[in-house]
């Protein structure tokens, strides 16, 4: 590349040329040579394309057996799936000075992960925000190790962070005085299931039933309520909903499209008996403005047969795409609200086939 005529062009001209490429092509060009990588990761170029729409990808969490085997994963990375191109990508995380990083959430181009400090002799973990495309990171204020074991990390579209457990909640935003976490009592009736942070509120499912029969309810809490000592959770329910929570087995919540839609996914019960079989997997959508439910999707029966034979499956994703994995499946099922259902092949590294993930909106933006 040293003798290439392209080196004779001034950086501003090169920036204008490459800025006309789609973000996918820019990422590919960065791996061509050191010159391109330096040019396309520079601050001036990143500022030019900072307003470019993100890539809507799916990031997979690392397998459980990698968490305590540092030698098995000498170069930490995160596997992502591009549904628009139907291809798998890999982003290295070797720029992070942490052992065994565990990605758990993402928002606005950043990935949030738990990491062990290289110099730490204990088991304490740090919550880190990073952008694998720009290879930048920021360590959030220190937390106790119990939060990484029992807390669920939630992030909204403006990178406000919450770590939620059954008993307590931690809340952090860049504007917090003294750069500290704010701690509050959760006051939930049971352990929150699949909580979601969106539209200035937190939503979670709680089982308020008996030990022998589950009864799920939807709870919400506005972020403004965090200013009081006892977090004020409200049970969302309407007479018109009828038996909406009784027809779904083991429901999960996911963020829907935009900031006004919430998805609930679970098995569609065939009967109202104590432990009924399910006929398929149902996706329901709640409009947070009108508080009305509608059916968004129903897994085809031929696809559901693979999940019917599995004792356990996971649901992840959000927005206009939802993904499903199951033991011994070897592939993912994907629901696209515009294109319907299809299989996603190429999942590897998961011994039992059961994997989890989250939406990663990849962006070439510099961290503040």
From TrEMBL:
Annotated SUPFAM superfamilies: F-box domain, Kelch motif
One Pfam family of this chain: F-box
InterPro entries: F-box-like_dom_sf (IPR036047), F-box_dom (IPR001810), Kelch-typ_b-propeller (IPR015915)
Residues covered by the F-box domain: 3-48
Transmembrane segments: none
Protein name per the record: F-box domain-containing protein
């Amino acid at each position: 590349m040293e003798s290439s005529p392209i080196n004779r062009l001034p950086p501003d001209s090169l920036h204008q040329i490459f800025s006309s490429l789609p973000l996918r092509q820019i990422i590919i060009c960065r791996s061509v040579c050191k010159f391109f990588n330096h040019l396309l990761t520079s601050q001036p170029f990143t500022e030019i394309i900072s307003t470019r729409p993100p890539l809507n990808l799916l990031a997979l969490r690392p397998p459980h057996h990698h968490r305590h085997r540092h030698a098995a994963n000498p170069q930490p990375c995160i596997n992502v799936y591009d549904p628009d191109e139907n291809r798998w990508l890999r982003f290295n995380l070797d720029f992070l000075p942490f052992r065994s990083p565990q990605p758990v959430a993402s928002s606005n181009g950043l990935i949030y992960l738990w990491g062990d400090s290289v110099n730490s002799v204990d088991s304490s973990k740090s919550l880190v925000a990073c952008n694998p495309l720009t290879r930048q990171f920021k360590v959030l204020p220190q937390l106790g190790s119990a939060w990484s074991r029992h807390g669920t990390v939630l992030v909204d579209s403006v990178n406000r962070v919450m770590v939620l457990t059954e008993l307590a909640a931690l809340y952090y935003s860049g504007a917090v005085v003294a750069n500290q976490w704010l701690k509050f009592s959760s006051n939930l009736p049971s352990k929150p299931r699949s909580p979601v942070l969106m539209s200035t509120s937190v939503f979670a499912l709680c089982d308020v039933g008996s030990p022998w029969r589950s009864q799920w309810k939807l709870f919400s809490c506005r972020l403004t309520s965090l200013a009081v000592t006892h977090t004020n959770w409200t049970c969302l329910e309407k007479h018109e909903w009828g038996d909406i929570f009784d027809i779904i087995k083991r429901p999960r919540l996911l963020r829907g499209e935009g900031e006004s839609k919430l998805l609930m996914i679970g098995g569609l019960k065939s009967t109202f008996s104590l432990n009924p079989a399910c006929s398929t997997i149902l996706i329901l959508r709640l409009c947070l403005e009108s508080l009305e439910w509608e059916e968004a999707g129903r897994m085809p029966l031929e696809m559901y047969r693979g999940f019917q034979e599995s004792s356990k499956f996971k649901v992840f994703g959000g927005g206009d795409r939802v993904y499903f994995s199951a033991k011994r499946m070897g592939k993912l099922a994907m629901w696209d609200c515009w294109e319907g259902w299809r299989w996603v092949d190429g999942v590897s590294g998961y011994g039992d086939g059961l994997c989890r993930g989250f939406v990663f909106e990849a962006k070439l933006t510099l961290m503040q």
